[in-house]
Amino acid sequence: MTSPLIDRLRSLLPPDAVVTEPDALAPGGQDMSRSAPSGVAAVLVRPRTTEQVAEVLRTADELQVPVVPQGARSGLVGAAAAMEGAVLLDLSRMDRILRIDAVDGVAVVQPGVVIADLQRAAAAQGLFYAPDPASADRATVGGTIATNAGGMRCVKYGVTRDAVRSLEVVLADGTVVRTRPATAKGVAGLDLTSLIVGSEGVLAVVTEATLALLPAPGPSRAVAGTFRTVADAIAAAGTIAAGPRLPSTLEFLDGVALRGVRIVLPEIPLPADATAWLIAVTDVREGAEEDLESFAAAFRDHGAITVARAEDPHAVEDLFAARRALNPALTAVRGGATHGDLAVPRSQLPALVEGAAEIQSRLGVEISLAGHVGDGNLHPTIVFDPSDAAEAAAARQAEGELLALAQTLGGTVAGEHGIGTLKLDAIAGELAPRILELQHGVKAVFDPKGILNPGRKLGGI
User: Pick from 222, 200, 369: which is nearest to 282 by CA?
Assistant: First the structure.
């Protein structure tokens, strides 16, 4: 296969960096959302350097060919799916940890570095990279920056944006720029770093990131509790999150999620027949005992059936493994599952639970309400039989109603997974027309020809 685009790319890049064979292109057509791509890509490119990325974008910009940046494709909203005639820009070969600096407390890394690998490298030097998405063993730095990924430690440490000091990015025309110095403080000019974080590849392509590291915390210890109702567990979580002892992790699994975890991880001991399960973790070096007693007291005050500690590292890891398995677990329950990702103010979580129950009853669907209860970011997910058209349709209707419910409660349709293509129809209910117009204007400044992931994140251009 040949074309002006492919001929140019082959003249600029090493032979193994340009892939056109259909069998090799096909796997890159989807992300973990399994949403249908909007077309067949023309070529897959696998650069290893910033300059190679710049050459690809210069070529695509000149020929006005769309470019879809990709990493591990572990996203859940279709932001990295193929589109007709596009260049799939696979950054996974840019996977070097360039520097870990204990004095400045930073790691300088390429976008293809896997989060778990960065965490281990930091830990080896007594340091700590806080962002911890459930997919940390496969998600890449570039992908988590693109979506402003959250994870299980957000309640204490914040999201990816809070850890990003500076970015090297390639603009649509191939220009390479750095967004700001890597200092801890810096307010010269506008904050383009934070603007690019979470932009899902529609503004620029990240080729290097300077990330903040923290001193290593203490060992994780946890309290897990079971409850008769989801409302009781949510109330206990609210007491803990608003209290003086902040957990490093505060996670919730309901009965539906627990059923799925038992399917995919039968070796992990889980509470039998629990309808709600709450996990509160501390990682402080001093005061851990007081933290655990405080968490346990909140559990008991809100009617916990059982309260158990996990102080052995293996027991704590079992809790984390169960939570990390949420997405495959929910799919395993019925064979199909939507990909929920809503956030509301913590004070509105009881109303979200009540509203979800009404939707479930009225539409005859089964909804799981698991997620990051500590910061209001739950993952309401409808499980269904994908071979049953009526069930699938009801699940999609329920999903749309849950998105609208979150917005009604002053929340958002995307806490950490992004918008991609799957949630484009929902953003009008959240962004005022003038705000959306301003955001399209920003996109046009960064990418005048509209080649970077067009139609994603904001829709339109």
Answer: 222
Tens of pLDDT, residue by residue over 427-436, are 999 999 999 9
Q: Give domain 4-90's CATH number out of 3.30.413.10, 3.40.640.10, 3.40.50.300, 3.30.43.10.
A: 3.30.43.10
What stretch of H or E contains 399? helix 389-408
Average pLDDT over residues 148-169: 96
For the chain, what are the domain ranges?
4-90, 97-215, 221-408
402 CB contacts (<8 Å, ≥6 apart)? 340, 342, 355, 356, 359, 367, 380
**pLDDT of 13-53, one tens digit each?**
999 999 999 888 888 788 888 776 778 999 999 999 999 99
The answer, as to whether pTM is greater than 0.90, is: yes
Q: Could you tell me the fold of the domain covering 221-408?
A: Vanillyl-alcohol Oxidase; Chain A, domain 3 (3.40.462)
DSSP 202: S
97-215: which CATH architecture?
2-Layer Sandwich (3.30)
Count CA within 13 A, CB hemisphere, residue 328. Answer: 13
Q: CB-hemisphere CA count at 13 Å for 450? A: 10
